[in-house]
Prior knowledge:
Elements: H1 12-36, H2 40-44, H3 51-63, H4 69-82, H5 91-97
Helix pairs in contact: 1-3, 1-4, 3-4
Amino acid sequence: FQITPPLSDLTPLGIYLRAFSLYLEGERRKEEQVTELRDPLERTSLNNANLPRLEAELRRAYGLGKLDAFGLYVYGVVLKGLRGTKRAPSRSTARSTKGKSNIAEGPEEG
C-alpha cells in the first residue's frame, strides 16, 4: 500500500480530510492485526503505521500555517498516538513549533 504525497494546494479542510482518513485507515489495519495475534503482549506493541508520515505532513502544514481547528485536532490525535512509541517526535521538536499558533490567545488589544 503506497500513500501518495499530499497536493500542495490542499485547503485546510482538505488537509484535515486526508489526514483523518489516513489515520482511520491505519487504525483499521492495526485492529485487523490485533485480531490475528494471540499473544496479549504482541497486541499492545502494535501501532498505526501511518502515524509517522502523518506527523511529518501535519508538522509541515502547521509550520506553514495551513491547519485550521480540525487540522490541529487531527495533529493532536496523531501526536498522542505517537506518544510512547519509538517514532515519537522529540520534545525539542514539539517545542520548536510552540508559539506559532494563536488559537489559545485572545483577541489583540489596542
